[in-house]
Amino acid sequence: MRDVIVIGAGGGGPVVAKELAARGLDVLVLEAGPRHARPREQWTSFENDANNPLSGYFRLGPTDRSKPAWFREWSQNSFVWQLSGVGGTTQHFYGNYPRAYPGVFNDYDKPDRAEYDINHRFPFSYGELVPYFEWVEATAPVMTAAMGTKEAVFFRGCETLGLPVQTTKTTHGPSYRPQENAILQPGGNAGRTTDTNLLTYPNATGCTFCGYCFQGCMRPVGAPRNQFAKRSTDNSYVPMALTADVWAPGGRPVELITDAYVTRIHTERRAGALRASGVTWRDNVSGAEHREDAKVVVMAGGCTENPRLWFNSGLPNPNDWVGRGYTDHFFDWVIGSFDDYTGNPKGVGSSARLDFPPYGGLENVGLPPALNAFATTLSDSGIRGQYANGRGPSGPWDGPAGRVMGPELKELVAGGLDRLLCVLVITDDDVEADNRVVTSALPADENGPIPKVTFRHRSRTARTTRNREFMAGKAAQLLRGAGAKKVFRIDWAPLILHVQSSMRMGESEQNSVLDPNAESRAVKGLFIADNSALANGLGGPNPTLTTQALATRTAEKIFQLHFGGDPWVRAESPVVSTDPRISVRLGELGL
Amino acid sequence: MSNSTVALGRRAFLARLGLLGAVGAGGLLSRGALAAPAANAQTDALPGLVALLRPVLAELARDTLNGLSVFALPGPDPYSAAQGTPSDTPGAMEARTTDFLIEALDNFVPFPDQLARPAGAALATGLADTGIELPGTDLLPGELATLDKALAALLENDATLPLSFPISGLLNLLATQVNPLAVNGPFLSPFARLNYAEKARAFELLEGPDSDLVALLDVQFPEPLKASVSGLLKFVGGALIEFASFGSYTEYAVFDRGTRQLTGRPVGWQLTGYQPDGPVEGWDDFIGYYQGRTEVHD
Ligand SMILES: Cc1cc2nc3c(=O)[nH]c(=O)nc-3n(C[C@H](O)[C@H](O)[C@H](O)COP(=O)(O)OP(=O)(O)OC[C@H]3O[C@@H](n4cnc5c(N)ncnc54)[C@H](O)[C@@H]3O)c2cc1C
Ligand code: SF4
Questions:
Q1: In terms of domain of life, where is this protein from (chain B) (predicted)?
Q2: Among the four residues A6, A55, A292, B262, which has the most C-beta atoms within 10 Å?
C-alpha cells in the first residue's frame, strides 16, 4: 500500500509528487509514455523527427515509435496537442509563466468585475494563491525573459498601442512586457555566439537562443539535466522528485514507472463514503496489468485523459460535469510580413507578451518552417482567395482571414522565415458545458474506450467571440505598428494546447467536479492536480504556472487532510530546482 | 433499380475513383486480366485478380497524393504544372511529401479497423449514382463487372487495407464532383488532374458543413458510428491540408534515421532560409533586457 499514487508525469503530476516526496511520503508516479533520460541520444531538434504527431519522439503514444500513437477522436477540424512521456506536454512548451488574472477569482471586485466569466470563478481569492505562485516561481525558477530581435520587434509594435509596461508579477490591467518565463536566463557565451565549441556548459549557461523549444530543450550541451534552460517538468520537478532524499530533510525519492498506462481507478466504501483505493495500470510493452493500492490517488493525466479514465473506471458523475467546461483560449494566429530581419525563429518560442484583461492576450511566437506551415494552414476559414468555409472575417488585416497555403505560402516565406513575425491570439474564453470530453463511439484501444473531444467553436458565447475578435484586431494593429508590410489572419480551427478546466473546481456543487481543495466531490481521497482542475481559462494567461501553484496547494491539502501533516508553504523556503545537490544525485543515478 | 442502372452507376463510380483510368488501354492492369467472365471470377480467377489489383490501387493512391502534395507546396514538376501553379524552386515532390503522407497514413494513423473496414466497404458498394454525366470508357460490361467484384473483394475482406486508398478514393470522388471531365486525362488520378482552384473547391466540399458526400458516406455506417464519421471527415479535410503542408517543409526527405543526421538541405529550409549553416547549438541573438529590467516583483 502506497501513500500516494500520481497518474501522469506532465505539467501538474510531478509537482504533487515532488512536494509530497519532500514530506517523506511513499509516492508512486505512473506515466503512460516514455522517459527520455538521454535526450542527446533520443532527440534531434528536427521538426518531423520531433513533432510528427504520429511518429515523432514527441507524440501521444508509447515509447516504441514503431507502434501507432494513441488515437483520439475529435469531430471537428481541430487539433489536440498533448504529449505523453515524462514532462508530458511541457516537453515542447515555451515556459511562459504568467500568473492568472485576478479577475477570475471569487474576491475580485474591480469595476470590470462583471466582464469576466463570473459564473465559473475560482472558489477562493487571488491572494490565497499568491504564496503558491511565489513558491513555484522560486522553484522552477521563473525569470524575466531575455530579449532577442523578435521581442524587440514585438515591443516596437506594443509601443504604438498606448499601453503601459507591466513591471509586476500580477497583471493589473492592459499592458505589455517581456514574459516571465521558466527559462534560465543566458549566461556566459549563451545567446552571444553561434560557435558550437563555445556553447558547452559551464562556459554557456541557461538559454542559448537555439530556437528549438518545440523540439525539446537539451541545452547547453553537457549541462546536468536539472540545468537545462527550459524548465519543462522533466528538467525541473521530476529530477527533484527523484532526488528528494538529498535536498529535503526527511525526503523520500518517488518511484517513477514509465510506459505504465493507468486504465482504472479503484474505489471502496468506507464509513458510508466512496473512497479511492488504488489503480490498475497496463505495461505498454508486455501488456501485463498491475494493481497498486494507495491511501490517496492523484489524477494528472491531462484535460482529455482524466475524464476518459473517470468514465472508464465507472466513477460517479452526479451533476454530469465530468469532462465538461473544457476551455482552450480559442486561439488565433496573425502573421506580419516585414522588409527587415525579425529574428524569427531564434530564441525561446515566445519571450514577449501583451495582456488585455478581460479580453485575453497576445504573445509573439517564433516557429521553424514546418510548424510555420502547419500554423498558416490550420484554419476554419477555407483557403484565402479560394473559399471561406462560411467565415473568412475581414478586419485590420489584409484580405479575408483564411489559410495561407500552397503558392501564397511559398511566396510569403520566400523572403525568409526571419522576415515574418507571428502573434498568437489568446482569448479569455468562457467555461461552456458543451465543450467537453465524452467517450467515443469508435472502437476502444488497448487501454479502454477512447475519449472524444468536442468543441462547438462556431457557436461559442458572445463574450468569447467578442474577445477573440478584439484580440485579433489588436494583434494586427501591433504588427502594423511594428512595421509589418502585410498582415494575415488565419482564423485558426481550434488548436487545443492551452487546455483547462475539464474537471473543474468550483464554488457551486452544480457545475464542478472538485471542491475548493481539489478533492473530487464524488470520491474521497481522489484529487486532481493538472490543468483540468482549474476553475476556468484564467482569463488567458498560459496555464502551467497556475496549475503548478494550485498543485502545490493541493499537495498541502492532501498532507493535511489525509496524513495529519502541517502546511509548509507559508512556513518554509523553497529549494530551487537547479540546486547542485540535485545535479550530483542525478549523476549518481545515471540520469 | 434495373440491372443496367446499377451497371451504369458502378461504371461511373469506378471511373470517378480513378480506377477505370488505371485499367485498360495504357493502364496498369491489362484488359486481358479482366477477361474472365464475372460469374467465374467468384471462384478461381478472383484471388489472382485481387493480387493484381492491389498494386494498381497503391499506384493510384500515390498519384492522388502527388496531386495533394503539390497543392500544399508546388514546385517544378508536372503535377504542379497541371495544377496551373508551376514554380522554379523545389516543392513537395522534391520534399517527398507523397512518401511522407503514405508512410503516415498506411503505417501510423491509428485508424481503427472497425472504421477502416466500413470505409472501404462504403467505397466498394456505395455512392452508386450521383447523377453526374461521365465520359465513357472502353471497358466492356463483363470486364467492368469483374473489376468491380475484385475491388469489392479487396475492400471488404482485406484486413490491412492501407488508409491511403480510401483517402485517395475520397479525393477522387470529390474531384469528379467538382469537374466530371477529370475522369480522363494525364496521370492516373482525377484529383491530380484538377487545377488549383478546382482542388480548393474539392476541399470546400469536404470541409463544408453540409457536404452531400459526407451525408452519402454516412449512410454506410451503423449508428453510433455514423455521427462520428461525418465529424471525422471534416477533420480529415483539414488534416490532409495541414499535414501535407507540415510534411513539405520538414526534413523528412533528407533525414537519415540510422545516423539521425541530414543528408542534404531540406526543401523547407532552402525555401525559407532557415538555419543557413545547418543545425545549431545556439544563436547570437541576445540583445539584452527590455528597459534594462532583469527581474520584477509585486
Ligand atoms: C507547443 C506548446 C507550447 C506551450 N507553451 C506553454 C507555455 O509557454 N506556458 C504554459 O503555461 N503552457 C504552455 N503549454 C501548455 C502546457 O504544455 C500545459 O499547460 C501542460 O503541459 C499541462 O499539464 P498537464 O499536467 O495538465 O497535462 P500534460 O502535460 O499533458 O501531462 C499529462 C501526462 O499524463 C500522462 N497520462 C495521461 N493519461 C494517463 C494514464 N491513464 N496513465 C498514466 N499516465 C497518463 C500523459 O502521458 C502525460 O505525460 C504549451 C503547450 C504546447 C503544446
Ligand atoms: S531556445 Fe533556449 S529554452 Fe528553448 S530549447 Fe533553446 S536553449 Fe532551450
A1: Bacteria
A2: A6
